């Protein structure tokens, strides 16, 4: 499989694919969503079903007229109705990806998590996975969870690990190198996640997670910088070469996310995993580029 080295590779791959994914957008009524939809249509990476509240905004009506064979418009009474209808469209197999427009994330998740009509099957764990390209690092990096699970249990860590390594493999990494992130290399019962890390490594050694290499606990710098590992005397093959970062809690993951986008010129793309189809719920502060890449990644 081709190794995806940056986000341009993702969009190139989608353009060359023989079948476009269809995206159901709940409540498209803002300039960022307009940018994503128009660019995706222009570059030929996706088709859309736009579920609008009350009326279709002029910008989206224009796009529907410009791309009539690739854009459907559905009008429902309220923003909450857009969430329920878009989820229904995905649930029925009429769209492959769900995307949030101006709708509040909580309102969309209420429809996604509906026990009877939602997209999360009983027993599945909802999580958020982010892919990023940091120019100074030079290759795609996947990390989780920066948005959904506050303090992962062992079961939740397993799910997060599965989603993150699954995405890494979709990006062409045959054997993802996974760094289990902590502020120190020591295992300490005061920090339960470090105990969970040891169990994850044991299970990985038993082959429960497929072809993967787990290392840690280790800090982010050690995971991404070979010299830091050399100075500390850490010889794990993950050191300086991580494809995946698993964070111990939502605070550390979210701080990493916001820091790299502000100070490291990082491009990012994120989506919800665990549902029957990818769900794109970009942050309000995310750039248009980030939201476009999130959609592209979900289509992959």
UniProtKB/TrEMBL annotation:
Keywords: Acyltransferase, Transferase. Residues 81-299 form the Phosphate acetyl/butaryl transferase domain. GO terms for molecular function: acyltransferase activity. It holds the Pfam family PTA_PTB. It comes from the Bacteria. InterPro entries: P_Ac_Bu_trans, Phos_Acetyltrans/Butyryltrans, PTA_PTB. Belongs to the phosphate acetyltransferase and butyryltransferase family. This is Phosphate butyryltransferase. It comes from Marseilla massiliensis. The lineage of its organism: Bacteria, Pseudomonadati, Bacteroidota, Bacteroidia, Bacteroidales.
